[in-house]
Each structure stands twice: as structure tokens, then as C-alpha cells.
Design brief:
alpha/beta, Rossmann fold, seven-stranded mixed sheet, globular, binds S-adenosylmethionine
């Protein structure tokens, strides 16, 4: 998948034009544990950075990673003010512990054979007692069908994360007209 070319052509149907509404709600209602002040959060496959910027605006210190270099000019300025940063890198190879990893349409963008590497990255990048919070999407797309996005279920994520993580929450997210498939919010604690 040539992600850089898709951004150049502005062919980005996954882009919601703002933070995911469920993330925005949890930030507004201050129910996104752990508490933001100074907490380091990792956003792999951040795209244009809507979620990363919302987390930074709420007080998190954000490391946003994307493999597409040209996204830096869009994402970096909004993160720097709160001590955050944008890295052009392969997020699967990143190894630096954070208190929180937030996942939105990165897991489902990966070819399924890379999910084991996602689990290794998550284990290395979430400190013990920290959390991984994920929008599990698209749940009801056909299994083993074309992608991205590839079908992603809670079980897929549990399998990729393995024994390193314990599931704390699995909650439905209201469907939205611009998102044809079902989503859930999952929260895990790093053992
Ligand atoms: C479906 S998009 C989602 C972007 C963003 N999370 C959003 O919701 O708008 C997937 C993103 O992952 C990035 N990506 C794909 N493989 C990557 C990798 N190995 N490391 C870092 N970023 C990657 C792509 O460039 C793209 O921005």
C-alpha cells in the first residue's frame, strides 16, 4: 500500500476530519484513564493527526508516528506546544515505553500477517500498568476479505496482544453514517 501516494491524491476515506467522536467524548468527560497531565501517549499510524492533536489539547504528551513523511508539517506544530512530537517511522519497529497507546485504524490498516509485529510493538511501547485503548473496527467486514481496512475483531486484537495485556473494557460505539461498519472501544492494561 502506497500510503504517501494516497495522501498526495487526497484519497483518504478513513479520515474523519476531526478526532474520533468517541475519543472526543471520553476526553470531554475526562473518562479516558489515565489522567492526561504530562502522561505520555503513543499514537501509531496517526495519519493527519486529528486524534493525536485532540489528546495533546487535553494535556497528554503525544508521540505521533506515521510512515508518511509529508504528514509532519500538518501534525508536528500542534504537538510541540505540549511537549509532543511527530516521528516519520515504521511504527511496528518503534520501541519506547509510554503510559498509554491509542489505536484508531492502524491495526486494521495492516496486512493481517503483520499483527504479530503489532503485538510486539505494543508490549514494548506500553509500560507495565499502562493502557492500550483501541477503536476496534471494522467488526462486521467480511473475514479474510480485501483491505485495508481488513476486518478486525476484539479476538484478533486479544490474540495479537497475547499474555502481555489484560482486557478491562469492551464497549459498543454508536454507528455513524460516514462509517459503514461497526466499531467498539476496547481498553487493555499492560501486565
Ligand atoms: C487508515 S490510515 C489511519 C490514519 C489515522 N489513524 C486516522 O484515523 O485518520 C492508516 C495510517 O497508518 C499509516 N501507516 C501504515 N503503515 C504504517 C507503519 N508501518 N508505520 C507507521 N505508519 C503506518 C499510514 O500512512 C496511514 O496514515
Amino acid at each position: 500500500m502506497d500510503w504517501a501516494e494516497l495522501y498526495r491524491q487526497n484519497t483518504t476515506p478513513w479520515d474523519m476530519g476531526g478526532a474520533h467522536p468517541e475519543l472526543a467524548r471520553r476526553l470531554d468527560e475526562a473518562v479516558l484513564a489515565p489522567a492526561p497531565a504530562g502522561t505520555r501517549v503513543l499514537v501509531p499510524g496517526c495519519g493527519r493527526g486529528h486524534d493525536a492533536l485532540a489528546l495533546a489539547a487535553a494535556g497528554f504528551q503525544v508521540t505521533a508516528i506515521d510512515i508518511v513523511e509529508q504528514l509532519a508539517t500538518q501534525v508536528e506544530p500542534g504537538l510541540g506546544a505540549s511537549g509532543g512530537r511527530f516521528l516519520t517511522a515504521d511504527a511496528l519497529a518503534f520501541r519506547e515505553a509510554h503510559a498509554l497507546l491509542f489505536e484508531h485504524t492502524f491495526f486494521c490498516a495492516l496486512p493481517p500477517e503483520l499483527r504479530g509485529r503489532y503485538g510486539e510493538m505494543a508490549a514494548a511501547c506500553v509500560e507495565s500498568g499502562g493502557e492500550l485503548q483501541a477503536i476496534v473496527f471494522p467488526l462486521d467486514k467480511e473475514p479474510r476479505g480485501e483491505g485495508p481496512p481488513f476486518q478486525m475483531t476484539l479476538e484478533d486484537l486479544v490474540t495479537a496482544l497475547g499474555e502481555a495485556f489484560e482486557l478491562l473494557e469492551d464497549a459498543p460505539i454508536p454507528t455513524r453514517p460516514e462509517r459503514p461498519w461497526l466499531s467498539r472501544w476496547a481498553r487493555f492494561r499492560r501486565r
